[in-house]
Amino acid sequence: xxxxxxxxxxxxxxxxxxxxxxxMDHLHSEDRALVESYCxxxxxxxxxxxxxxxxVAADGRVVWLRTSIRLVAANEMKELVGVxxxxxxxxxxxxxAEGASxxxxxxxxxxxxxxxxLKEENSRMSGELEFTQRLQRMMLPRDEDLREIxxxxxxxxMKPATEVGGDYYDVVSQNGGVVFGIGDVTGHGLESxxxxxxxxxxxxxxxxxxxxxxxxxFEVLNRVVYDNVRRMNxxxxxxxxxxxxxxxxxxxSGQHEEVLVVRGNGVLERHDxxxxxFPLGLEEDISRFVGEARVPLQSxxxxxxxTDGITEAMNCARVxxxxxxxxxxxxxxxxxxxxEIREAVLRSLHEYTGGQDLLDDISLLVIKPA
Length: 370
Prior knowledge:
- By secondary structure, the chain is α+β, with helices and mostly antiparallel strands.
- Helix content is 41%, strand content 26%.
- The chain has a five-stranded antiparallel beta sheet. Strands 5-6-7-8-11 form a five-stranded antiparallel beta sheet, covered by helices on one side.
- A hairpin with a 2-residue loop joins strand 5 and strand 6 (177-185).
- The radius of gyration is 26 Å and the shape is elongated.
């Protein structure tokens, strides 16, 4: 037993060497029979064995290990000699990805159920409307959930350009903080809507699986999107930013549109996210692109995130609404509650476009700390 074993699991070396059954006694109860079977196979001269299992550390942590054992014989003495390698981080990432995949499968099954219902009712148009409404309800946080988040005034809005939209936004309260997500899947229609639902499910699954760390989070999330886009045989990808708010500080990660902040004194700030990430689903590994930016957010400040359906909306002269008009609408109403800021932006957009049909989905999320 070397020093690394003591540091990894927290038990002094002398505990290992003075107690013959120490290793077996500290195996995870669910893995003991498996480990014993590999040891028996080694003793029976079936050759070296390699397996994965869990042990319980001195502080109660569960540690995943990859262990290789072999039989050593000398002077009629036989011993099992082994090497343990810590694989806890890999296992946690694998479990998170599997959880996201299971959740995705449940949603795909639900989509299939709805599609079967369409065939049974022989009513494609009415079924599409129901299906669209179901998708949007599954994606969006409910108003009552937003109101229950302490010390925050939050208002959101999403409107698809066609039956099914590819915009995504979500709000998740977690461990005394709040995680805000805003994203935009390329294209429109069913495929884009399914990708948006997969992202929403994967984000919530990963947030529930452990502490948030942006680089690892986006690495696993991108792998889920990348694999599913190829399984669906479509060419969709998306931009996505996550904003982690805690103790009046927002940590921004992921590439999307600019993040707008208007301070209590009316000063406008525009925070670019271009260098904070990479579109999800394009490359198998994007971990090297993921970065973070930290922005203080105090009581009286307002933060706004949006999709480009707002800034790229056009008037009759085919001139876009633009980031400057959006910024001005927020700044002119920054002292109002979040709902009223949202309505002021949507009213400004509607007046500018003359009520024309949308060419792209639009989403807007207004955040005000108390």
